[in-house]
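no rush on this but wanted to send it before i forget. theres a chain ive been looking at and ive put its sequence and its fold in C-alpha cell form underneath. i want to understand how the C-alpha cells follow from the sequence so walk me through it. thanks a lot i owe you, the record is right below:
>
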Amino acid sequence: HVPLVAITGTNGKSTTTVLVGEILRAAGHRAFVGGNLGTPLIEAVDDPNWTIAVAEVSSFQLEWVEMFRPRVGVFLNLTPDHLDRYADLDAYGEAKMRLFARQDERDVAVLNRDDPWIWSHRREIRAVVRWFSLSSSAADAFADGTVVTVRGGPGSPWRMDLAPTALQGVHNRENAMAALLVARELGVSMDAASAALASVRPLPHRLEFVREWHGVRFYDDSKGTNVGAVEKSLLSFPGKIVLLAGGYDKQGDFRSLVPLLRERVRYAVFFGAAGPKWAQQVGANVPHTVVSGLKEAVREAARVANPGDVVLLSPGCASFDEFTDYADRGRAFRTWVEEL
C-alpha cells in the first residue's frame, strides 16, 4: 500500500493532478499519476514501483466507491455541470463529497475557501482541513496577484511567483495553491516544488495559446465545457475578448456570465447545437452572431477581431454535436486558426 492523493472538482482536476505528480517526482518520489486523467488507478495497485499515487477522480467514479480513502483529498471547485445526469447542484456536489467519506483525523482535505458550496459542507469532513483562497490572506494558501503564499507543515511559509511560469490565468493560481498545499502536507521541500512549477507546461486545450495573427491572439480552451470554466477563462484576460461559445448543451445556465460578458467581451460568436440557447440567454448583453459550427465561428471571429483582441474558444458546452470529444474540437480549432 502507498499513500494516495485524490483530486476532484468541476474544473482543474487534470492540471492539478499532473502538477502534484510533477512536484512529487521532483522530490524524488516514484509517483503514479492517473485515474480519470488516463491510466486507471487500479493499475497502480500492488505495483511495487510506486511510492505514492496521484489520481484524478470524477463524480461518476465516486458514485461507486465504498472503501476509497485518500491520504490527501482535494476538492477544487463546484459549478453547475453534468446536470443531464444529476438532479441539481446539490446532487452533483454530494457525489463529489464521497471523496472524503472514509477519511478520518489522520487524513487531510484540501478545500477551496472561495467556493460557497464546498465551504458550506466542510463540517461534514472528519479529516484535517487545509484551505486555499484568492480572496482571504487568512487561508493556508492565498494569492496576492501572481504571488502565492503557502503555510502549514514545518518551516516558514513558502512564497512563489507564478508570473515566470507557464501556469497563467486565475484558475491556475487556484490549481497551484491546491498542489502546493498537498506538497507541504507530504513533506516536500520548497526547492522541489519550485523546480516543478518552473518546468510544468499547461495541458492541451486548457487556455492554450495557439497563434498570433494580424495582432490577434487565439486561445484554445476547448476543455472549458461548463459555465464555471468559461468564467475563469474570461477572468484571465482584462478585456477585448472575442468569445467563441457553443456545442452540445449539458443543461447549463449561461445567464450567470452576463456581468463578465458585459465587462470583458467585445463580441461573441455562438455556434453549434447550443448556439441559439447562448444567444437567447445572454445575447441582449453582448454584440454577437450565431453560426452553425466551429469552423464558421473561427472565420467570423477572424473577420470581426481587431489588433490587440483575444479570440477565446471557451465553449461552455460539450463537443458531441460536432466532435468526438473536447480534444478533437481543440485540434480542429487549432487547424482552422492556423489556416487563416
Summary: The chain has two domains: 4-199, 208-338. The chain has a mean pLDDT of 96. The first helix runs from residue 13 to 26.
